[in-house]
Amino acid sequence: MSMPAATRDPPSLLRRADGATIAYRRRPGRGPGIVFLGGFMSDMTGTKAEALDHFSATRGQAYLRFDYFGHGASSGAFKDATIGRWLDDALAVLDELTEGPQVLVGSSLGGWIMLLAARARPQRAKALVGIAAAPDFTEDLMWAEFTPAQRQALERDGFLRMPSAYDPAGYLYTLALIEEGRRHLVMRAPIAIDCPVRLLHGMRDEDVPWRTSLAVAERLQSRDVRVTLVKDGDHRLSTKADLALLAATLEPLL
Question: Which of 69, 134, 56, 123 shows the shortest CA–CA distance to 94?
Answer without folding.
Answer: 123
